[in-house]
């Protein structure tokens, strides 16, 4: 486990050192990488911290500026940051 801030504790595999999950005690939230659960049928319902995105996600899923209100965030929805490519219809 590595803890740089009070908000997050990164947890790693003892055998290979791979980053498995991140615990967020103040938020009562644990991020588990979906690849760690190979039989999980995952379908995202929301993107969090989207205001910091580098690549736009064009999937129709709501994007939040930070975290949902019930987890201590603003709950503010941000618009998709989509750039039109040549010859492509605007979404």
What do you see in this structure?
Strands 1-2-3 form a 3-stranded antiparallel β-sheet, with no helix packed on it. The chain is globular. It is 0% helix and 15% strand. By secondary structure, the protein is mostly beta strands. The mean pLDDT is 83. It has no helices and 3 strands. A hairpin with a 4-residue loop joins strand 2 (19-24) and strand 3 (29-32).
Q: Total helix count?
A: 0
Average pLDDT rating: 83
Identify the strand order in the major beta sheet: 1-2-3
Low-pLDDT residue spans: none
Q: What is the CA-atom radius of gyration, in angstroms?
A: 16 Å
The SS-based structural class is mainly beta
Return the string of H and E elements.
EEE
Q: Main beta sheet, described?
A: 3 strands, antiparallel
Strand content: 15-25%
Strand elements, count: 3
Rough outline: globular
N→C terminal distance:
42 Å
Helix content percent band: under 10%
Structure summary:
With 91 residues, this protein is mostly beta strands. The chain has strands spanning 9-12, 19-24, 29-32.
List keywords for this structure.
91 residues; mainly beta; three-stranded antiparallel β-sheet
Topology:
Blueprint lengths: L8 E4 L6 E6 L4 E4 L59
Antiparallel strand pairs: 1-2, 2-3
């Amino acid at each position: 486990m590595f803890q740089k801030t009070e908000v997050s504790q990164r947890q790693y595999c003892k055998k290979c050192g791979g980053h498995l999950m991140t615990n967020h005690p103040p938020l009562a939230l644990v991020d588990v990488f979906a690849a760690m659960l190979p039989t999980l049928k995952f379908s995202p319902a929301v993107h969090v911290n989207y205001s910091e995105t580098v690549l736009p996600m064009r999937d129709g899923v709501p994007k939040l500026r930070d975290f949902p209100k019930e987890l201590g965030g603003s709950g503010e929805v941000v618009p998709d940051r989509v750039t039109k490519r040549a010859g492509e219809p605007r979404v």
